[in-house]
Amino acid sequence: MRTAGRNHLYVPGPTNTPDRILRAMVVAQEDHRSPKFPELALSVLNDLKKVFKTTAGTIFTFPASGTGMWEAALTNTLSPGDKVLCSRFGQFSHLWADMTQRLGFEVQVIDVEWGSGVPYDQYEEVLRADKEHKIKAVLACQNETATGVTSDIGRVRKAIDNANHPALLMVDTVSSLVSIDFRMDEWGVDCTVAGSQKGFMLPAGMGILGMSPKALKAMETSKSRRCYFDIGDMQRSNVNGYFPYTPSIPMLYGMREALDTIFEEGLENVFARHEYLARGVRAAVLEGWNLKLCANDEQWYSNTVSAIVVPEGFDAARVISNAYARYNLSLGAGLSKVAGKVFRIGHVGDLNALSLMSAIAGAEMSMLDNGIKVTPGSGVAAASTWWRTHAPNEG
User: Fold this and answer.
1) Which CATH class, in words, describes the domain spanning 20-263?
2) Judging by DSSP bridges, how do beta strands 135-141 and 58-63 pair with one another?
């Protein structure tokens, strides 16, 4: 049976795509080798540097996802057997560590409680002890999507610098770029991994990788096998505004429109809007429903996704399935260690307070349907109180 109305999409990616971006992607196909094509390609690649906050770095796009960019970052800069330091505190930091090991690198994993973020002090301690500089790269997820945890990448850079260590810094910004402040040059990030389907408000399908001059230099000694994700091939084609193989033309037009949308709002205003919306959602969870977030301390709270812990004895998966079946509401599932324990509200991309009200109201109704004793209307009331009494750029 057809369900009337649009699906209320509040997973933390893919996010809602604005109509103007969808319209921009409905284009006739064209020759990606034509003399005119570089106007589009170079404008996208150059303007992406603004959202990465880099002037020294180079941006590459691939028909791929963020996972592909994990692989591209590793294989273009490292050699088999190189040692990599990373931490595991959620499903995506786990998957990146797992990929690193499967690609033949030696991985030193620091396991952290899920709900916390990057262990800055432990990173510094390990790097100080690495007198021979065997560690060639340090991995960090700026925003762990599975648990709703944001880490301070500036503090990761400080840990590396305090240890006087030459390792490359690689950062996953898939669920944070264009939504949470990121400063590639200032924080000395060498490889920045991103994807199209979250803050950029596009469909999934474009992987985006920022590389510093140091990372590009590391390619000269990297002995890892690569082909599709070879940055050298991309460099040689991109310099003239082309690609080494057929790009997704609709995605490039979509990214052009997405960047225009972001710049019209103002990048700093986008960050402020995401914090404003996130604070309202957190008010609903903590003050309205009297529930807990998976993020176990305020320092870790994410402005793009909140993972809400259901009370003991209840199944978050039932809340999610009921919300979808009864209210046409898509909520994010708990993954791996937190499966069945949390549901996630994504508050990233093209959203405002009223659109998020539907996520809060629907999640509340679904919890009540499943016997979770929250006061009807409490989440909406708490969120609306916070949003009405504050404005973006206010604490």
Assistant:
1) alpha beta
2) unpaired
The phi-psi region of residue 245 (left if phi > 0; otherwise alpha if psi is between -120 and 50; otherwise beta) is: beta
Cβ-in-10-Å burial (0-12, 13-18, 19+) of 364 comes to buried
| Chain centroid to CA 114 | 17
Structure-token match 């960050």, residue found: 271
Rounded distance between C-alpha atoms, residue 199 and residue 194, angstroms? 10
d(CA 57, CA 42): 15
H and E: helices and strands count for the chain = 13, 14
* Residues 124, 239: Cα–Cα separation, whole Å: 38
Domain ranges of the chain: 8-14+266-389, 20-263
pLDDT in tens, 170-180: 999 999 999 99
pTM: 0.97
Q: Which CATH superfamily is domain 8-14+266-389 in?
A: Aspartate Aminotransferase, domain 1 (3.90.1150.10)
Domain 8-14+266-389 and domain 20-263 have a common topology: no
Q: What is the pLDDT of residue 1?
A: 58
Residue 71 has phi, psi (to 5 degrees) of -65, -40
